[in-house]
Amino acid sequence: MRHLLSAGDLSRDEATLVLDTAAELAQVGDRSVKKLPTLRGRTVVNLFYEDSTRTRTSFELAAKRLSADVINFSAKGSSVSKGESLKDTALTLQAMGADAVVIRHSASGAAHRLANWVDGSVLNAGDGTHEHPTQALLDAYTMRDRLGRLDGLRVAVVGDILHSRVARSNVLLLTTLGAHVTLVAPPTLLPVSVHTWPCEVSYDLDEVLPKSDVVMMLRVQAERMRDSFFPSVREYSRNYGLDGERLNRMPAEAIVMHPGPMVRGMEISAEVADSPRCTVTEQVANGVSLRMAVLYLLLGGS
After folding, report:
1. Whole-prediction pTM value?
2. Which of 70, 133, 141, 237 is deepest in the core (most CB within 10 A)?
């Protein structure tokens, strides 16, 4: 594996190797000195054309814990704002000798294009509404860590599927790893092509909850919406929001996940967000170990 562009590119064995490697690297986080010399002398570039707090910081921390040199390239204060194209930026990074480029971009397919222009490894940290493979990997890691398995797990992904790269990556990866995924959303928030995805679809959250081991709530991405996709926030919450009452309808061991940022009071109530059954802070912590594992495997760390 040279790049990580799509969760669908990973075989079951490759995905399991990433999760197992992350589990080993997670133990580094428990030590007083949290650094490994593994990627010393390697350069990792964080190329972010879209705002991101968790993903960018997490990739930066992961690279630094493996002793790589990290260059943070934010498109806001760069030549990109003067009109430099992605290809020119790529050639600049290539000239600097970047071993890995982590890219987040608002255009679907940007990571694939970048992979044609640089010799280093390209890691897709979110491209448009297309994919976000490391998020799906850290989600799978969190499920396995909490529930002990992925094979046969019943996972419900709820909310704005249409604009969600997290949903697509999770469907592809979890299916590869043997889980069963059901998407739950109003018809207006489902992609036209959803019938080609390897999952089930439901419009009824209350029907799906009692049968789910994992319920992953997605934020409604207002910033990607040009039209009105549902009547009102209140009505959306009533039909597709997870509150304490709905949490009680889930199986006792079931967990609640969210890729963040959470909109409390819309897709998730404060009571559920702060519940011990909600794994949001674990997902963030696991994200660092998981991204360390991906960098380690792609850059051939010793």
Report:
1. 0.94
2. 133
